Amino acid sequence: MRRVGSILVVLNVALGYCSGQIRERNTRCSADEPVRVEDVFRTIDVLGLWSGARCVGPLSSIRKSSVLKELKKYLVGQIATPGWVRRERDFLRSGNIFVIQSSNLAQRSSKAFEYFSNIRVGEIDLELMPDMFVSMIKRSGVSSDTNLIKCAFFLAVIPESLYIQNMEKSELTTHINELRSNLSLLQLARLLYLLWFMENKVD
Questions:
Q1: 116: confidence class by pLDDT, cuts 50, 70, 90
Q2: Alpha helices in 7-96 (DSSP H)
Q3: What CA–CA distance (Å, rounded) separates 21 from 179?
Q4: Which residue of 98, 105, 150, 185 is surrounded by the most CB atoms within 10 Å?
Q5: Do 97 and 43 contact (CB within 8 A), yes or no?
């Protein structure tokens, strides 16, 4: 499908996340300077490689889980904005759902945001969440494009999945560009997952 970037780039991204360098760079970049789609693909490729990596012992499993979690946040920052990543961090620290509400969400997704904040997300089976997300988004009027909604969910929550890893580059490029024009889809997908995470306390 897509050609994986050089091994040095892969290692730099992964090791940069472990040291915190990537996270710091991400919070300093400007929302007015969108990341190239090719760089987004590179991060997705790295996620696929780390997801398939074999672990030997509990410490390596913990490290793998940590790297995957940070790379997912980095990917969201590449497609959305660094400010959103900061809001996620503040929400996880405070538990106050309103700190995560961006102006974009307020303008385009108030119904969906209110709905998400009033349901017992922790009781949802994670495997059923993509279809549930599609249904909720359509009912709230944020979007009616099933493929785009589903792509937003998998990019935001499970970018290492085969759904994303096997998607044609041209199709994924189109979806990423569409999501940048409707960031609320990506943000709502992250919000749904974060609410689920907060109730279940898992990576």
A1: low
A2: 7-19, 21-28, 37-51, 58-79, 82-94
A3: 26
A4: 185
A5: no
